[in-house]
Design a protein that fits this description.
The chain is of the alpha+beta class. Among the domains are: 133 residues, PAS domain (Beta-Lactamase, 2-Layer Sandwich); 33 residues; 153 residues, Histidine kinase-like ATPase, C-terminal domain (Heat Shock Protein 90). The protein is 52% helix and 19% strand. It contains 15 helices and 19 strands. The strands form 5 sheets. Strands 2-1-7-6-4 form a 5-stranded antiparallel sheet, sandwiched between helices. The longest helix is centred in the first third of the chain and has 67 residues.
């Protein structure tokens, strides 16, 4: 259960990744992994094939080296046959020189010296030739005995006799009683011997010794390089070195390593380094040529190909990464753009539109999103229109209950009756009330001249002044450049009423109300200031929130339908609450202004406890009744 839960958790975490990262991961998986796998396969295949070719080429090189050495050794063998068949040599070996004068003997020896010297002249690889008879006498062009001790007692002489006429390669000579005029060292030559037999008795009549210069073998071997540090070496049948480089990787090759078969290859770890060893044995010389090189340097071609493969895979991976990022960005960008449009619409900006011209699923979804917003705007406009029509119907219904002509005639009768009886103060109040109703009705017009609105508020203040006497004072400052403008009617009276009942009335001593009208930053501003008791900060903040929410665009969410149905009920509750707190009409003034001119216009309130309150009304500049 726990493992299943962990798998589900990892799956959901992957699902929570942005689509851009998912696309990048997908592109990398389908591009980089096959590229790396292909690179590894190529590297493995190339290394295996090149390794096989290297082994085969190395064996071919060893075969050529063996043939070169066999050529030189074969020449030495042929020389022994030529020397054995020479008449002078045969006469020397028989030792039958009776009846021969001293001069003839000297001439014969001289002739043999010249004969043997001819071999060293024709074959530069020959270091010296020596013929020794059974009595121990010898003839040579370059070689001579170090001491009077008979040469027949030398090991090489005995080995040749034991060979019974078979050509034998002795390898490097050691501790023999022979030296040369050229003073070749023992490790600079290779000796070959052959016994010369009597054809009748098959007894050895003498031995031919030839020294082969080792440098000819070294020249055939040392120029062959295997990798950077690899080399060839030649060993005899006993494992002794015929030739080895000056600084070999491995000094001695055990005989058992090269015992199996005439050729082969194997790996061996020497001093912590893995070495590749390839060998081939020469049946003629019985020597084994061995190639030794490090496995790390099996072939320069492998390393070069590997470098190109790695470089290719590296740049291919970079290209794949760049392509993955670009494709993921190009695919996720329109989705992110559409998501940002939806977030703006969710925050209340229904004017946003998807502007892409794509014809794929994202483009179709964007156009459907635009259609949805257009339909929502229509629904909101319809709701707003219905609300405005409802408010206007209520106002017109209120006005319809008042009989204008009857009211005017009644007030005019009271006015003249008061004057007839000398009650001038009553006449003034009745006249102001008549003007108040006349301007308030305004023949059913909602937009009236600003001068009528000022006259209306003056009539209202005259009536209130009659009531409060010296308790109420007021001033008006109407800028001349606003007197020709138009405003919504009955916007000042509710504000002045609140200033009187909640400001001036609650303070001690007389109060003052200042009314101003002026133009600022392209808007008509009407301000009503009083020096009353002011408002508590929390009460002021509450009133501001109520005014801000009077006409608000409903937020679109999954509860839109429910909110639209409850909106009318909430408006009634807010109106009742504001009426209890600040008097009737303030909320209605704010709603009328914003429903008529938009939410950028309306009322703002500033108040300081104990100092007074200022209400500012902002409306657009209207120079005629049609705006």
């Amino acid at each position: 259960m726990r493992g299943c839960h962990l798998k589900q958790l990892k799956f959901f975490q992957l699902n929570n990744l942005p689509i851009r990262y998912k696309l990048i991961i997908m592109f990398l998986l389908i591009s980089i992994l096959p590229s790396i796998g292909l690179g590894l396969l190529i590297d493995y295949t190339v290394e295996r094939i090149i390794g096989k070719q290297v082994n085969e080429n190395t064996l071919q090189l060893i075969g050529k080296v063996n043939k070169s050495m066999e050529f030189y050794v074969s020449n030495m063998q042929n020389m022994t046959y030529l020397i054995a068949f020479d008449p002078g040599v045969k006469q020397f070996l028989k030792g039958n020189d009776s009846g021969v004068s001293e001069e003839e003997r000297e001439n014969s020896v001289y002739s043999m010296h010249k004969y043997l010297q001819g071999f060293t002249t024709l074959y530069s690889e020959v270091a010296g030739v020596m013929v020794v008879n059974s009595k121990g006498d010898y003839i040579s062009n370059e070689l001579y005995a170090r001491s009077p001790q008979p040469l027949t007692e030398e090991s090489w002489f005995k080995e040749a006799v034991a060979g019974k006429g078979i050509y034998k390669i002795l390898g490097k000579p050691g501790h023999r009683n022979i030296t040369s005029h050229a003073n070749y060292k023992e490790d600079e030559v290779i000796s070959v011997v052959r016994a010369i037999l009597n054809p009748d008795t098959q007894q050895a009549e003498g031995v031919v010794l030839i020294d082969l210069k080792l440098r000819v073998i070294a020249e055939a071997v040392k120029d062959v390089r295997l990798g950077k540090t690899g080399y060839l070496l030649v060993i005899d049948h006993d494992g002794g070195h015929i030739y080895s480089p000056a600084k070999p990787i491995i000094r001695d090759i055990p005989k058992q390593w090269v015992m199996e078969g005439s050729s082969g290859n194997f790996s061996q770890i020497v001093d912590g380094e893995k070495l590749q060893i390839i060998y081939r044995k020469s049946t003629f010389t019985d020597w084994t040529t061995v190639g030794v090189f490090s496995s790390k340097e099996s072939a320069l071609e492998v390393q070069e190909i590997r470098f190109y493969v790695i470089t290719f895979v590296f740049f291919l991976c970079l290209l794949n990464i760049a392509a993955a990022i670009y494709l993921a960005h190009s695919m996720s960008r329109p989705i992110n753009q559409l998501m940002s449009f939806m977030q703006k619409a969710e925050s209340g900006d229904l004017t946003i539109r998807y502007w892409g011209e794509r014809e794929d699923e994202v483009g179709k979804l964007g156009r459907s999103f635009n259609t949805m917003l257009a339909q929502m705007n229509k629904l909101l406009s319809l709701t707003e229109l219905q609300g405005r029509q409802k408010r206007e119907a209520e106002l017109r219904s209120l006005q319809a209950h008042i009989k204008p002509h009857f009211l005017y005639n009644t007030l005019d009768t009271i006015h003249w009756m008061a004057r007839k009886k000398g009650a001038e103060d009553v006449a003034e109040v009745v006249q102001s009330l008549s003007k108040l109703f006349r301007i308030g009705l305004s023949k059913g017009n909602d937009i009236i001249p600003l001068t009528d609105e000022i006259e209306h508020i003056q009539s209202y203040l005259v009536i209130q002044k009659t009531r409060y006497k010296d308790k109420l004072n007021y001033t008006m400052d109407i800028s001349p450049d606003v007197q020709q403008l138009y405003v919504i009617k009955l916007v000042l009276q509710p504000i002045v009423e609140n200033a009187i009942y909640h400001g001036i009335k609650e303070r001690r001593g007389p109060g003052h109300i200042a009314i101003k009208a002026y133009v600022d930053e392209g808007s008509l501003l009407l301000s009503v200031s009083d020096d009353g008791v002011g408002m508590q900060p929390e009460k002021l903040e509450q009133l501001r929130r109520l005014l801000d929410s009077t006409v608000a665009t409903p937020k679109l969410s999954e509860h839109d339908l429910k909110e639209l149905r409850e909106r009318e009920h909430q408006d009634v509750l807010r109106s009742k609450k504001l009426q209890e707190q600040q008097g009737y009409g303030v909320l209605n003034v704010q709603a009328r202004i914003q429903l008529t001119f938009g939410e950028r216009y309306g009322m703002s309130i500033e108040s300081t406890l104990g100092e007074g309150t200022t209400v500012t009304i902002a409306m657009p500049i209207l120079r005629d009744i049609y705006g």
